[in-house]
Amino acid sequence: MSDTKPTALILLNMGGPDSLEAVEPFLYNLFSDRELIQLPAGELLQKPFAKMISHFRAKRVVENYRTIGGKSPLLEWTQKQAEGIAARLENVQPYVIMRYWHPFADDVLAEIKQAGIKQAVVLSMYPHYTGATTGSSVNDFRRAVDRIYPKLQYRLIKDWYNWPPYLDALANRVKEGIEQFHDMVQNEVQILFSAHALPQKFIDRGDPYQQQVETTASEVMKRVGDHYNWRIAYQSRSGPVKWMAPGTEEMIKWLGADDHSCLLMVPISFVSDHIETLEEIDIGYRNLAAACGFHHFHRSPSLNAHADFLGAMAALVKDRCGL
To answer: Of 76, 226, 231, 294, which has the fewest Cβ atoms less than 10 A away?
Structure first.
């Protein structure tokens, strides 16, 4: 990919509301996506049902966002990641496209077209592949390219769950998490990797998400030390469908009943802080762990804009795309 114009580095992510007023329309966009959520009434009724569900859920979700400052920090972190990765590459211009809230694919591609950029690397910020997240974002991007900039040449990086420098960076965050515990109890720390849950039907149809999550956790623990006890669970399960198991709440209760006293939670499918780390883990699961008898609770730091993670992703782009 050689050109006098820079190469666009486009990071794809889910997005999040940038104000409390944006919560309901964000939820509507999310529930309208049949690649993520197939409401039972069928495609024709998906949007009316999405409007109803987002309206009723918004009141509770608004309060969750209020507790973390009134908006999602996901865009800010993804922009910092894009800038940090681009800074480690040559002649690269960073961009961010979100799936369910601004900046949307059409707007960003129009900006890239206006800038005269002819080529791009498109990097999913979901380490583990499922059609519900990466697949939906990639398809949304491709549809927007067809509409806005069909001449754009691009390469896609869809997953990187076993990329060694990424595993090194995540292992460093786990080690930092362990160091938050007193020296006297560090060897007693129970490590719980928590990934975002999917409806079981995605796994049953052949999505590699669960296998990739398990591979990531196993490889990270080889770097951290196999003498630690560790488990994997899946969070953010809601609604009357069969979800991946075990659920994070159930796992915390089970570990507490087994007389563990020190719990370190590691958000494994997230690469930056957002509602699932700042509210669901830091508040909800912290309170649950205390109620289940854990005397010591910490969460490992998110990857965010740590230099080792940005370096890992820049090396990934070089390795996969030759930049």
So the answer is: 226
